[in-house]
Amino acid sequence: MPAQQKKLIFCTAGVLSFACALGTAAAIGTQLWVRGTILCTTGALLVNATGPELHKFIGEIQYGLFSGQRVRQCGLGGRPFQFSFFPDLLKIIPASIHVSVILFCTVLIVFALVGAGFFMFNAFGSPYETLHGPVGLYLWSFIACSCGCLIMILFSSEVKIHHLSEKIANFKEGTFTFKTHREQFASSFWTILVCSLVHFINALLIRFAGFEFPFSKSKDSGTITGAVDLMY
């Protein structure tokens, strides 16, 4: 492939990696990871609410990795409540999983920036034969993509398996009991998915630029070596 086309491919991959780093950093600070509604089951059972009356007992909840807000509806209007995971909710959430999600988000940002730097270096500089060359480009892309996948798996298990929304909704609630009525992942969560796909696409761009996968050996070299061995 001509050198100009390789430079264009590496520049594109570098810009995408840098954009992913910025997108992940922005996603960490938002409350747009999960959105949903919560049902005040205690209030609904007290008045035997059904149909349109049930909407008076359905509140809202949204949260991110560090904070969030909920609006409780128990028949007397919405009551907003702000909360933070650190240190308020550490006793009721799976803290090890939550901290792991934040840690992998940080690692994703770091390796996305590292990958962007090496892509630009390969585009405008003279790449080394070790980690600055195609081996390093594959490595940084693979690590960043793996971190993105781990973030989605861990956070999904925290929300769905450990019922994170219900634990947050029932935080400091002695009389009323809340149940998740509807929940869905919001834009910040899908940003991590897009970043993972981008890093996977970057690995394909490296291959498209003409670099073989670094951990595979050429069959021709093995054939030549075998022929030389037979000669002796």
From TrEMBL:
Bilayer topology: Multi-pass membrane protein
Stretches assigned to coiled coil: none
Gene Ontology BP term (one): equilibrioception
Chief localisation class: membrane
Keyword annotations from UniProtKB, A to Z: Membrane, Transmembrane, Transmembrane helix
Family matches, as InterPro entries: Clarin
Alphabetical list of Pfam families matching this protein: Clarin-2
Keyword field contains Membrane: yes
Keyword check for Ribosomal protein: no
Localization in the cell: Membrane
GO cellular component: membrane
Sequence intervals crossing the membrane: 97-123, 135-155, 189-209
Stated family: Belongs to the clarin family.
Protein name: CLRN1 protein
Organism lineage string: Eukaryota, Metazoa, Chordata, Craniata, Vertebrata
